[in-house]
Amino acid sequence: PVQGSKWYEELYRNSVDMNGPDIKRLCEAARENRIQVVIGINERGDSFGEIYNTNLIIDSSGEIIGKHRKLVPTWAEKLTWTSGDGSSLKVYKTEVGPIGTLACGENTNTLARFTLLSQGELIHVANYISLPVAPPDYDMAEAIKIRAAAHSFEGKLFTIVSCSTISQEIKDRLRVDVPDVDTLLDRKNSAFSGFIGPNGAVMGTPLIDEEGIVYADIDLAKCIQPKQMHDILGHYNRFDIFDLRVNVAPVKRITFVNGDESFKI
């Protein structure tokens, strides 16, 4: 924490203001190219110095239709990001189909994933960080693929995975504080980007540890037939036995009381 404190400040200074020019440029790009965009950002919170790990959903008209803040920061992330709340566990109707998204490690959270499935999700976007500093027996690329395949197979949907990579610029910036940065960050199989189909199989050629663009054609009709076998939102579940309750209310940080009146922020 002590060594990383200066990096926290720099991260905040480079984080994104939702009303700033960076977001405007993203929206303009989506509108000009008529594309749906799901992108991860470091979002500035209302409290000065506060950062959220956020996924934005922008439609093809350039409008922000959703914003998901990661529910629980993972591992060392707890020193950096503030937790989100259930208000952003939503699925968004778009021209290409119903889209939902989760950030990195929370794709391991079965309850969060089921919450999206229950809202009709057919396209799931999962973004990750490259993790070369994982334990020696941990294959990050495989771990990403396993989670994406599980969600696709269980929900009979398509998953799009986008993972960051480690650039030379990152290593050069860290070298002053971390002399053995090359040894730590050059590890193979630390990143996976690609498409997973409703059968849990990889579509096309994924990217492993590489920066680039992955292409695939998806047909939402392919989500229909597999549900004859397993439809965990329908005939293949027992909602008279299981009851998942999700609090979707935004977190209120404080309640001010003045006589019989009160208001929250």
Key structural traits:
alpha+beta; 2 domains; 265 residues; six-stranded mixed beta sheet; three-stranded antiparallel beta sheet; single chain
CATH topology annotation of the largest domain: Nitrilase/N-carbamoyl-D-aminoacid amidohydrolase
Structural class: alpha+beta
**CATH class designation of the largest domain:** Alpha Beta
Number of structural domains: 2
- Work out the strand percent: 15-25%
Q: What does the overall shape look like?
A: globular
How is the biggest beta sheet arranged?
6 strands, mixed
CA radius of gyration is 20 Å
H/E series: HHEEEEEHEHEHHEEEE
Low-confidence stretches: none
Count of strand segments: 11
Tell me the number of helical segments per DSSP (H or I, 4 or more residues long): 6
Give the overall average pLDDT: 95
- Distance linking N and C termini: 30 Å
Please estimate the helix content.
Answer: 10-25%
CATH architecture of the largest domain: 4-Layer Sandwich
CATH H-level superfamily of the largest domain: Carbon-nitrogen hydrolase
Spatial strand arrangement across the major sheet: 4-5-6-7-8-9
